[in-house]
Structures are given as structure tokens and as C-alpha cells.
Amino acid sequence: xxxxxxxxxxxxxxxxxxxxxxxxxxxxxxxxxxxxxxxxxxxxxxxxxxxxxxxxxxxxxxxxxxxxxxxxxxxxxxxxxxxxxxxxxxxxxxxxx
Length: 97
Hints:
There is one protein chain. The protein is an all-alpha fold. It is built from four helices and no strands. It has a domain of about 70 residues. The protein is about 50% helix and about 0% strand.
């Protein structure tokens, strides 16, 4: 499953876009210095997200929408078409993710 597919699934499960979840995380005080565990605990408690989907959100909460170029068109299990993830909602993604 691509990184973008994980984020799209998070939206389906929560009803919130990744961008909205990032904003909620900021309101809770989570930022680039926050370790994964408290973010994962919050996502599990409030949205029943498992570790894989939670870790995708940890990335965008702590590192932003850019992903390492090694994942772009790599053919690997988490390969994505580009190095920037779409956080504004799966239905508005111009790339059709």
C-alpha cells in the first residue's frame, strides 16, 4: 500500500482529511519534536487507528507532506508516484492517488 493510500484510508476511517488531523494534532500540542507513541495513542483512542495508519499520520504530523525520494516510483510496497503527499482530501486529489 502506498503512503498516499494509507492517508486516504485514514480519511475513510475517520471522516477527516489528513490536513484536518494535522491541525487537530497541533491543537493538542503535537509537533515535529513529538515522539510517535503519544500521537499513536491519541489516534487509537480518539479514532481507533491501528499502527500502520497511525504511523502514516505520525509522519505528516512530525515531518510534513514530503517523503523520501527513495519511495518515489520505487516499485516497493510503499511506493508513491511523487515525493509530496496530498493532505487535502482524497476526493480532491488532482493526481487521483
